[in-house]
Amino acid sequence: MSLPRRKNTVIVGGGTVGTTPAYFLTRNTSYDPAVGPIVLVEAAGIAAGSSGKGGGFIASWATPHCIAPLSFKLHNDLAREHDGEKCQGFRAVHATETEIKVKEFDTN
C-alpha cells in the first residue's frame, strides 16, 4: 500500500470569506492534517480588516431565498457550539421594514 499523496490547501485572507472554508474543511471527515495542512495567508491578522464582502448580518430577504433558512440555522448552530453569545456577542434580533408615505401639509 502506498502512502497518500501530500496535498496542501492555501487560503488567502483571514476574514469571514477566508476563515469560513478553512473552518469547514477541517471539520470534514476526510480531512487529515498529516496528508496536507490548510494554510491561511493573511497580511495583517485574523479578522483585522474588512473586505466589504462579509456584512455581518443575515436576513430572510437575502437571495437566493432558499439559502436564508439554512444560513439562520447554521449561524445559530455555530453560536451554540462556540459560545457565540459570550465570546462574540452573537444575538438574534428581529427587524422589520416598512414603507410609509408622508403627506405634505401647510403649517401656516
From TrEMBL:
SUPFAM superfamilies reported for this sequence: FAD/NAD(P)-binding domain
Gene3D superfamilies attached to this UniProt entry: FAD/NAD(P)-binding domain (3.50.50.60)
Any one Gene Ontology cellular component term annotated for this protein: cytosol
Alphabetical list of InterPro entries matching this protein: FAD-dep_OxRdtase, FAD/NAD-bd_sf
Residue ranges of every copy of the FAD dependent oxidoreductase domain listed in the record: 10-81
Protein's UniProt name: FAD dependent oxidoreductase domain-containing protein
Pfam name, any one: DAO
Superkingdom of the source species: Eukaryota
Gene Ontology biological process terms from the UniProt entry: retrograde transport, endosome to Golgi
